[in-house]
Amino acid sequence: MEKILVTGATGHLGNAVIERLVKDMQPESIAVMTRQEEKRIAFHNKGFTAYVASYDDVRSLEKAMEGVNTVLLISSGDQGDRMQEHKNVVDAAKRTGVKNIAYTSRCLRDREALVNTLMIEHFKTEDYIIASGMNYIFFRNILYMDVIPQFIGGSPALEQGIFLPAGNGRVSYALRSELGEAMANVLLRKSFDNSIYDFTGNNSYSFYDVADVLTALSGKEVSYTDVETAAFVGRMLQRNLPEPLIQKIVDFITDIKNNQEAEITGTLEKYLGRKPTALKEGLKILFGL
């Protein structure tokens, strides 16, 4: 029996993948990993093969991969040593005889010109997987539309406006749930031929566009101000954010300014089976407007 392990199963992306997989697969053919026992029990009660495991616990990884043909490695967060965690998953998969590995990478224009080191780690993980010799699929996902509220400061931005050092940089956002659905559709094809899928929305948008859409949806005049980086850092310091976090945010926005997130492909639409949600409808959902 073909069996797939979904890591990061309790995250938004992992959950979206599982919701689609289970429509065409029996739950017992889907193994899931979670860090918490109560969540493991919840999955188990739904018929899934569920494990308490983490990327930094090699023994737990190997146990979760027993009898598994395919592993979907959903990229780790940035709280620990992400590269080592990814290597742990790849190494455990190889040791336990896993044949195929899929990885959630990022769709970015130029690997060599990236400012954000977290994004560079995605490509280093790809390199490590290729070197492992396993069959692979890389899902290079565009920036989630879901993060726009976080980027602009949430609902207060409807009153105060958007202040970011992003210039006229554009992003071809896609909803995280639709990315997960398209990923599952690819996995269900069971064709691991060392392929790369660049998943993006069908249009790219600047923060001027975001402001215009929010103005139309809310009936309030929402402006976008392209501020200098130093002024942006000052505003973040006033909010008592730690300097390392501020630097991460600045690096992320600098890559947006440099149009690293502006690629547009038709691949997401192809594997989603419909047009991805556009900015207006997405922001309407995300802001409850």
Account of the 3D structure:
The longest helix has 16 residues, at 117-132. The protein has a seven-stranded parallel beta sheet with strand order 3-2-1-4-5-6-8, sandwiched between helices. It has a two-stranded parallel sheet with strand order 7-9. The model has no long low-confidence stretch (mean pLDDT 94). The protein is 45% helix and 14% strand. The chain has a domain at 4-142 and 175-200 and 264-276: NAD(P)-binding Rossmann-like Domain (Rossmann fold). The chain has 289 residues and is α/β, with parallel strands linked by helices. Strand 5 (100-106), helix 5 (117-132) and strand 6 (135-141) form a beta-alpha-beta unit. It has helices spanning 12-21, 37-45, 58-64, 82-95, 117-132, 148-152, 157-160, 176-188, 207-218, 229-238, 243-257, 267-272, 279-287; strands at residues 4-6, 30-34, 49-52, 70-73, 100-106, 135-141, 162-164, 195-199, 224-226. The protein has 13 helices and nine strands.
Please give a handful of descriptors for the protein shown.
289 residues; Rossmann fold; alpha/beta; globular
Summarize this structure briefly.
The protein is α/β, with parallel strands linked by helices. It has helices at 12-21, 37-45, 58-64, 82-95, 117-132, 148-152, 157-160, 176-188, 207-218, 229-238, 243-257, 267-272, 279-287; strands spanning 4-6, 30-34, 49-52, 70-73, 100-106, 135-141, 162-164, 195-199, 224-226. The chain has a domain at 4-142 and 175-200 and 264-276: 3-Layer(aba) Sandwich (Rossmann fold), CATH 3.40.50.720.
